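[Q] Does anyone have a clean structure-token version of this?
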Amino acid sequence: MHFSSDEEDVHREPKLYPLTIITSSDIRTLMSVDLELSPKQKRPAGERCCEPVVYPEVERQQAEQLARVAKALGDPVRLQLVDVLRKHAGKVCVCELVPLFDLGQPTVSHHLKVLRQAGIVGSERQGLWAYYYVIPDALKELSGWLS
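[A] Here you go.
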């Protein structure tokens, strides 16, 4: 059986090159580090292993509110809705928001409801339509905490 030169290159053994040999004593010499090791000791039940470096400044209730806001803003569509609403001079009808997204009116309304429950946007009904706006101080607390 005869192989073409391309096939011979594919089946040829790879060339081996000698490697530099480093022994563990060489590594110890090159990377000497003095560590003082002490045996592990079991601490009594309930005793801390160490003191906390920092304590939280955010109270539990404030942390829960910040988490609700952050969670609501964690969805890309909701983040975009807040962006549109805060740039708008006044209240925006849900019918004006639907064409901005590749979503149906019920889905956009659901996202607005989540934002409303988180305290980020407010709404006002006029006839059949709901008009939405960003609550002015809603994002100040989150923004202040992040900075």
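[Q] Thanks! Anything notable?
[A] The first helix runs from residue 5 to 11.
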